[in-house]
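Service request form, structural biology core

Requester: graduate student, group of Dr. S.
Request type: structure prediction, single chain
Budget code: on file
Notes: please return the result as structure tokens.

Sequence provided:
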Amino acid sequence: MDKAQLKRMFLGTTKLSAKTESALQETVNGIGNMAYKLCGTMLVNCKPCDELTIAIRRVQEGVLYFQQALKQAVQEPEEQ
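Core staff response, request fulfilled:
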């Protein structure tokens, strides 16, 4: 994985976060930015290998799960 691939992967996450409610937007963007910076640091400090690619993808996947959990948490009180 290189910097361009990392940028494309997180660009997709950013597009998804743009569809979130405005109340969640700042939180989702903050988490996404932190994850992107973490993955960038991993790329700079580690030599390219399969394990690094897997770790970066899992961080990005975690961001997506977190976004979904936030959306559900906001929707549940409205439904009650």
